[in-house]
Amino acid sequence: xxxxxxxxxxxxxxxxxxxxxNGLSPALSGEELTRYVPEVADLATLDVKxxxxxxxxxxxxxxxxxxxxxxxxxxxxxxxFVVLHGTDTMAYTAAALxxxxxxxxxxxxxxxxxxxxxxxxxxxxxxxxxxxxxxxxNDARDVSIAFGGIxxxxxxxxxxxxxxxxxxxxxxxxxxxxxxTDRIVRSAPFAHARKADGSRxxxxxxxxxxxxxxxxVFALKLTPGLDSRIFSALAPSYDAVILETFxxxxxxxxxxxxxxxxxxxYSWVDSGRIAVMTTQVPEEGLDLxxxxxxxxxxxxxxxxxxxxxxxxxxxxxxxxxxxQTRDVAEVEHLFNCEINHDRSPFx
Length: 347
Description:
single chain, alpha/beta, eight-stranded mixed beta sheet, 9 helices, 18 strands, 24% strand, elongated
């Protein structure tokens, strides 16, 4: 049987890091990383492209576009893609790639490690091996994260632990699969994932590709006593604000000083900007219709609802939607479409 061709896109991160006197920093190239795991040669014919070599803390939306462009330019030449990435912003990049390269019939798998590849007690070797394994699987598709033996949809991942090898969790959505050494065990809903694309009813031959993002998006976490004038302070620099509300969708009626929150938020969106409501609670999502302190925002034009999406996916999706159009109604339409399992069906 002919082995599949996999392109490994290296970006740096802990997996590529070494200690050189000032703390860990990326030093190994993608080519060097593959030499630590010679077993991948049994799985696939592997090529490597070095998109960048940075700590993922320094990852920016322009870098997401660069990674996406690297994949798109080589898309016809490979059967799948593995992106080596630092863990701290991996969930953001996985979400961004989900919106930039949609409905991909070929798998785009992100992975990394909690310990450097050169460390004596690293998780990097198994993560790299299992990511290539998943990228060669006939049922794999779209953007995902394979890490610590679990495969998560690219829009549903969140880094939950800073040191443990099981760093990522799947939020408000079941994992796509588990990997037991060299065996892929799919979750029941995804056991026959390639038989139909749930959003379109068929599997496209090529992905739908986008190349624009609007990085002027600010995530604002509500805290008791927050001054509602923060919105006017943000207005010159941002086109959208993502408001992490209390509980299931609670927003204070009045700050310590300044206008009430409702006036501040309505003024923000009535000026043509976008506000996205989500919750700072990790699981189960938002419902603005439950309490009086949220219901006023449920149907106001320009106010979008994050439902059960992750904060990382909301940030990336808002940047993507605003990158395509400035029309508020069209932004809302794009935001509410389900892409790569990013939200439960819109109510």
